[in-house]
Write a structure and sequence with these properties.
By secondary structure, the chain is an all-alpha fold. The protein contains 15 helices and no strands.
């Protein structure tokens, strides 16, 4: 009996070695992933899966490395395995739902989100995904409520703050838009803010009649995204309204250099020429008198 028991113990320890080694490789893979060493991380996760296909962390890590390489469908397959092997861990459910959402698979994303809401209502990411799903269905008020739930759990959540600001823009609630983005700016620098933040703030400032501050927002945006023609067109339009024809002309020229076929660019170019000519004629007439 003692001999048999000893054999079983040895066999049990021997059988657990692959799982222990797989966990160790998975931890190393996670560390490599967090340091941006994606190729090395993939090798480590692949090694872990060779040792133990049922390692949920290895499946999750492999999903993330494949997603990084734009092998999206394979990434989803591994993430589904990670969810199943983890017993439907809410964070993995939400990540799977986010993958489905970014692939345009909205029904699958909503299903994952609904399941996550039953077990992970305290996760801000769950409410963020829920808000995105509702917004995609056109339920903007419900989406905004979901975003507020996410921000109540995690006040500094840039992706959600920008999405909420977008909805405030659509609803014409520019004061609320600015308040939402000002909170985001308080937690980061202007240069670290997403480019969309400066665009939305510029639009709101412009709608509220704060043209000088709007111009500052668009100027910052132009520095961050110099190849975006829409930014230069916003600057041109704002400058034209202020009769700053030189700035408007320069911004329009930049936009048309990036996108020569831009209809709005050509329309603004014509308006600038017409209004600057009328202004010059008015000045000339006044001088003659």
């Amino acid at each position: 009996m003692l001999a048999a028991s000893g054999c079983r113990a040895i066999r049990s320890r021997s059988e657990s070695q692959p799982s222990i080694a797989a966990r160790r490789l998975s931890r190393q893979g996670l560390e490599a992933m967090h340091h941006g060493r994606w190729d090395y991380a993939e090798e480590l996760f692949a090694g872990a899966l060779d040792l133990n296909e049922a390692d949920d962390r290895a499946n999750w890590g492999m999903a993330e490395t494949l997603w990084q390489r734009n092998e999206r469908e394979d990434a989803v397959t591994y993430m589904k395995s990670a969810v199943r092997l983890s017993g439907s861990h809410p964070e993995l459910l939400v990540r799977l739902g986010r993958m489905h959402f970014e692939l345009g698979q909205f029904e699958e994303a909503e299903a994952n989100c609904e399941e996550a809401l039953h077990v992970g209502r305290e996760l801000p990411e769950t409410w963020s995904l829920h808000g995105d799903c509702l917004q995609q269905r056109g339920e903007s008020d419900a989406a905004l409520a979901a975003y507020h739930r996410a921000l109540a759990l995690q006040p500094d959540f840039p992706a959600v703050q920008v999405q909420a600001a977008e909805l405030y823009r659509q609803q014409g609630r520019y004061d609320r838009l600015l308040a939402t983005l000002d909170r985001l700016r308080d937690s980061t620098s202007d240069c670290a803010c997403p480019a969309r933040v400066h665009m939305l703030r510029g639009v709101a400032m412009r709608k509220l009649g704060r043209d000088e501050e709007a111009a500052q927002c668009f100027a910052m945006l132009a520095q961050l995204t110099p190849e975006d023609p829409n930014v230069h067109l916003q600057i041109a339009s704002l400058s034209l309204e202020a009769d700053d024809f030189e700035t408007a002309r320069l911004a329009t020229r930049h936009a048309l250099e990036i996108d020569p076929a831009s209809p709005l660019g050509h329309e603004l170019h014509a308006q600038i020429d017409q209004r600057s000519r009328l202004a010059a004629e008015a000045l000339h007439t006044g001088t003659k008198r």
